[in-house]
Description:
disordered N terminus; globular; 3-stranded antiparallel β-sheet; transmembrane helix; mainly alpha; Peptidoglycan glycosyltransferase MrdB; 3% strand
Amino acid sequence: MLDLRRLTGQELRLSEKLVEFNWGFLLLLALIASIGFAMLYSVADGSFTPWALRQAARFAAGACIMIVVAMIDLRLWMRLAYPLYGMSLALLIAVEIMGFTGMGAQRWLDLGIIQLQPSEIMKVTLVLVLARYFHGLTLDEVSRIRNLLIPLALVGAPVALVVLQPDLGTAILLVAAGAIIFFSAGLRWRYFIFAGAGVLAAIPVIWSRLHDYQRNRVFTFLDPESDPLGTGYHILQSKIALGSGGIFGKGFMEGTQSQLNFLPEKHTDFIFTMLGEELGLVGGLALLTLYFIVLMFSFNVALQCRNQFGRLLAIGISMMFFFYVFINTAMVMGLLPVVGVPLPLVSYGGTSMLSLMFAFGLLMSVYIHRNLEISRGPSAFW
């Protein structure tokens, strides 16, 4: 029997949403996170503290957030897009005023109970607000100059604040996420060509304004052997660890570079290196395969969605996830300069874990409401 609610886009009951929720997708995320728990257990020399147990608790909390977010009507998330973006922007401003410095950058807010990194939240809310904005435009309206001023400001404001922290890696991710939404909304190619030409022309100015450590990262990327005990230490140790892992690895908790503390930041940015040393090429490819399945499911959600808001939101979340994986894995292999981008669901980190699970909750809301038809224009907001 045909379900008329699915055909007409009427609101589903909570029980129906729970049935529609893709529990297999949550299980897939739990499998990836479990690999992270195992690596954090190995980092701590066979102890669940201080990282593995805390990370598991964060994933459990994130799974609850994901389910709750998925149960909320997609139209409500569209109404909340601007307020959530405004809240994230206010938190970024608060970082400039009262944020504390860690690892050479002022990126965190101490809220007493938790330490929050607002830039991680902004990555999700920026995708949300751009999807909301472009939902109200027709394909012809997207490429009109006057209609691009607001979304450019929506991208530019958080990018400027993040650059001030300074966090160039996150700023690049925000720009990339914005560009993907612009492209998916139907912005004409010539604008991207002009933007690319502008960036190339501005490279000398950008280079002159980089901090010394940021320039050193570029020099190190080009020639890491020039300073093997200084700026090149991180990437050289990472390459040694990955290469020594071979095909099948040295065995769980048997890595020499990681267990003897030659490998820096092994519980955060360089956790993929540790996995490659202990579990080898096979272990690394297994994790990347799981990531690929997540990505394909996310793109499939976008293809199935019947409304523009949900389609753009799913594409934005999918590409944000891809950028996380690509930049982190390419960085530890020496294919990109070293930047502070965590490996999704695997690297230790509270804000990144919870914000990513919130994003997946939005993705699942799109999946549950994929047949929902949402009208365009101002009335859709209210």
